Every structure is written in C-alpha cells, then in structure tokens.
Amino acid sequence: MPPDYYGTLGISRDAGADDIKRAYRRLARQLHPDVNPDPGTQERFKEVTNAYEVLSDPRKRELYDLGGDPLATGGGAGGGFGAGFSFTDIMDAFFGGAAGPGPRSRVRRGQDALLRVQLDLAEASFGTTREMQVDTAIACATCGGAGTAPGASFVACDMCGGRGEINQVQRSFLGQVMTARPCPQCHGFGTVNPRPCPECSGDGRVRTRRTVTMKIPAGVDTGTRIQLAGQGEVGPGGGPAGDLYVEVSVAPHPVFSRRGDELHATIVLPMTAAALGTWVELETLDSTEQIEIRPGTQHGETQRLPARGVPRLRGTGRGDLVVHFEVVTPTKLDGRQEELLLELAELRGEQHVSGAPASGGGGGLFTRLRDAFKAP
Fold it and tell me: Domain containing 299 — which CATH number?
C-alpha cells in the first residue's frame, strides 16, 4: 500500500493546488533540518517532501489517486526529494514563492533621471516655462529598440534550450537535490542575438541630447521636485521610459527673503523720518507699494501687507509681505546739526539721561537681583 500522502500533509483528498502548497510550506518551516536537526524530524521532513512531490504534480497525483505510488514506480522511492524535485520548491516554501522558472524578459523599465534648475525668486513665485537639455537614452531608430540587425531576430539558446536556466543534480544527506542557475550563454533570457544591431550594439538604445519643455508651477521653493512621467531613460529591449525629476533651487534676492509663503523686506529709515513719519515706495516682485511710515516708528517694528507674498503651491491665495523697519542714528553731525539736536533734547528734557535699566513688572534688574539674594 502506498503511503497516505494526504494524511502526511494534513489535507483532504479534494484539496486544491494552493491548499497543498500552503500545507507543505507550514510543515517545511517546522521540520526542515536547518530548523530542527532531530533525526526523527528529518525522517518526517522526507515524508512531507515526498508527499508534496506527488500531490503537487498533476500526473503523479492522478497515478496516486488510482492506487499507485509514483515514487516507487518512478524509481524515486526512498530518494529523499526524488527524481525531478527542484530545490526551488524548498526556497518557495521558506520565502513565500518567487517568480516561476523560465527565461527572463529582455524588456525592462528604464531608469529615472534627475535634473537641477535654478530660478530667481520671481520665477519661483509666479511660475515659468523652461527648456532644458537632457542627455539620456532613447530607443534606437535603426532596430526600433529590439537590438537586432534589420531582418534578424532572436533565436532560442542551444545551451539551455530556451529555458533560461541550467539544472544541476547533486547528492546530499537528504537525497538528490536539483538546483537551477541562469544559463551562462544567454544570461537567463532563453534567447541569443545572432546579429546585433550595428547602431546600438544590441542594447536597443542610444544616448542622445534632447530638449524638454516643462512648465514650472507658481510657488515652488528650493528642494521642490517636479515629476515628468515617461521623460526619463528608455528601458532595455524597448521597455517603457522612466520618469524625469527636476529639482528646483532658488537664487538669493537682493531685497526679499522668503519664509514659506511669506516675503520679508527691510526698510532703513533715518531717525528723523521715523520720528516725523513719511511715505516710502517699495518695488515688490509684481507691483509697486506705497508704505506709510507712521510718526514715532521704532526700530524693529514691522508692517504686514496682506496677499503680497508668494502664491501657495498646493492651495489658493498668497502669503503676506512683511516689512521690517530699521531706524538708523546718525554718527557724524556738523555744527548746525548738533545745535539743533541739543535744542531738541533741551525742549524734551533729555539733556541728561540716567541710564538706569528699564523697569519691568517686578522692578529693575538690580532690584530683582537684590531681592533674589535677600534672606527670607
């Protein structure tokens, strides 16, 4: 009587291929000699492996269901993995299953490309259009990306018979183990190129310089990356092109600095203008603004102009323009200017200044230090 392979895997007789594979994976992880070196467990692992070899092969399973033992009749009984059992099945059990055996495709997606572009602040704020030169791979016009000379085509590899892999059988303590490796002649593709294209030497691609026109949206900033789908390198074998990424850097502006979607500018005021008040004309990135300097403006004060900043990249509206005031005290005075300032100081009672520190809510600086060290 043949062994009960269904019972060995713990499945019913009407189990599908996926059920058989899942049962084998579960048991193989538990019983593999690398995980459990116990001799009894190794024997159990051989039984599980034999059961999987039979039930995973439709022809062997049919013979087994008719009452025969495919391993015994096929010369594989007691042989551990049995004839024709691939080491790939073990790898599939432990690593979740890779791509099935067979030749690799020559058609692959191309690589992405990266360009860098520098913009001035106005271009980054309001958007622009740029034409850029790109050195990249495109499909060969002679062979259309196929890689073969005109009138030629790929032929099956005579070393692997078009399978793309070479099988080797080795003996181990578990029995015969069949391993597969890529064919050294066709490099796993299963076909060879008898007459490569003279233009691209069989790669299907040539390098060239081309012009790409791109629209840069309003609101970009240094570090922003813009994706142009399908504008990268064409893939081998005429495969689809990768993407082109354009990374933006913004050059410094002599007047404005940017913080997010806000623009900041500094206006330098003479002491007299800050005291008396005036109007200042400021050229912004897209308009001319009249800035009112209120009488008594202090050094470090700011004035905010709504919606005069940078348009928002992923939104609506614009940020604000923040104007900072820097009040400058004259360092050189002629005689008349000094007389006038002395007269002003006398009129304001500011001829003599004590220089005492400004008091806060809890007294001056020295008062607070004294109180801090005062005994309780």
Answer: 2.60.260.20
CA distance 246 to 210: 15
Is 359 part of any domain? no
Asked whether residue 248 falls in the same domain as residue 108, the answer is yes
Is residue 365 included in any domain, yes or no? no
pLDDT tens figures, 302-340: 999 999 999 999 888 999 999 999 999 998 999 999 999
Q: Which backbone phi and psi does 8 adopt, to 5 degrees?
A: -60, -40
pTM, rounded to two decimals: 0.61
Residue 161 lies in a domain: yes
Task: Say if CB 259 and CB 130 are below 8 A apart.
Answer: no
Q: What is the domain range of residue 144? A: 103-148+197-252
- For residue 22, the one-letter residue type is R
CA-based radius of gyration for the chain: 41
Question: Which alpha helices (DSSP H) does 56-151 contain, by range?
Answer: 58-65, 70-73, 87-95, 121-126
Q: Is the predicted pLDDT of residue 188 greater than 60, yes or no? A: yes
CA-closest candidate to residue 83, choices 72, 91, 93, 94 = 72
